[in-house]
Amino acid sequence: MESALLKSIIFSQHEIIRNEEIVPRDYQFAPNDNYVLVGMRRAGKTMILHEIVQKLIKNGVDWSQIIYINFEDERLQQMTINEFNDIVVVANELSDEKSYFFFDEIQNIDGWESFARRMADDHQRVYITGSNSKMMSSEIIGKLGGRYMMKLITPYNLKEFLTAKNIQHDEAALYTNSLLAKIKAATDDYLHNGGLPERLTQLDVRDYLTNIYQNIYLGDIIRRNSVRNKKSLSLLITKIAQTVMHEISYNGLVKAVKSTGNTISVPSAMDYVDFAREAFLLFDIKNFAAKFSERESLPKFYFQDNGILNLFLFQKDSILLENIVAIALYNRFSEDLYYLHSKKTGIDIDFYLPNKHTAIQVSWMVDEFSSERELGNLIKLAKNDSNIQKLYIITMEQEQTITQNDVRIELVSLYKFLLKMAW
C-alpha cells in the first residue's frame, strides 16, 4: 500500500481528533496496557480513542507519533493482512519516537488478530475497536495471546448522558428543585431516545435512529452474515421488540414471522438472533427457575439501546422502562442476571440477581391494580428464598418503603436507580 495514502488517512484523522469536543466516559485505561474496545456501532468507541489521543498530546506526545487508522475509510476497502506492515513502515517514517497505534473497526480486515498479536509482542502500544462480539470470543482472545485487555463499550449510562448535556447530577442536585427538574426531564429523554452519543446533536432524533438502525445495524447484520432472507430477519427483530418484558420461544418467533406470509425455519431464527447479539443490538436473560437444558429455549430479549427499541413501539412506556432497567443491570452484572418464572411456586420476578441476593420488579407506577402482582411476587419470593436480602420495585417516579408480612420493599424512581445503583 502506498505510504502517501496511509499518511493522508493518518493526517486526516489527526485533524478530526484535534477539533473534536470530547465528552468524558466512565472508562479507565492503564497507560502500559493494550486494549480491544468492543460494542455496538455508534456507542462511542471512536470518541474514547479520540479522548485517549487528546490526553497523550496533552502529556507531551507529538502528533507524528499518533498512527490512527479508521478501517471503515473507503480507501482501505481492498486492504489485506499482507499490507498491515506498511502501517509500521509509515510510522517509522513519521517519527523516530515511540508510536501509538489506533486501529478503528479493524475486524473489517481478515486476519487482523495475527498482526495485533505481533504488534504487542514487539512491545508496541496499540488500541483497537470493533463492533462484533466475536472479538471477545475465546478463539480471538487465544489468538491475541493475552496481550490485550478487553473492554465492552456501551451507549451512555444516565450519568454520562447528563454530563454530555451539561446537567449537574451530584448529591446536591438531587435536593435542588430546579436541578432535579432538569434531571427528571433528561431521564425521560433518555428513556425514550436512548444513549447513543451522536443522537444528542441531531435535530430529528427519530430520523437519525431510523437511519442508524436500517443502514448500520440491520444492514451490517445482513452484509456480515450474507443474509438472503432480509424480510424475515427484519420481521423477526420487530417481533422481538414487541415481546420485550415477556419470555418467548424460537418456535413462537417463527410462528409470528410465518403469520405475515414470510418463510423462516427455527434454525434460521436462531442464527438471526445470534447475528443480532453479535452486533450488540440485542441481549437476553435466562429463567433462573428453569432446568439448565431449558434455559436457552425460552429467554427474555432486550435491546441494547432504548432509542432503537422505541422505533418499534407506540406509546409503550412500560416496555421502555423495563428495557432501560435491563440495560443497566446487564451492563453491570451480565451473566449473574436472570428473570425468575416458576410454575411450581407461581413466582414471577422481572430481574433476579442470586449472587447479590436481590430481586427487582419494574412497574410504571404501583397502584391498587398493579400492587398485587409486584408486591405479591416479591413477598412470596422472600418467604420462599431465605437468601433474598434486597427487594426493589423500579418505578418512573414513585419513592416509598413498603412493609407487608414482615417483608421490606423499596420503591425506587428510575433516575435514582440509574444514578445511585451501587449494589
UniProtKB/TrEMBL annotation:
Residues 35-162 form the AAA domain. Pfam families: AAA_14, DUF4143. Residues 220-360 form the DUF4143 domain. It comes from the Bacteria. InterPro entries: AAA_14 (IPR041682), DUF4143 (IPR025420), P-loop_NTPase (IPR027417). This is AAA+ superfamily ATPase. It comes from Lactobacillus colini.
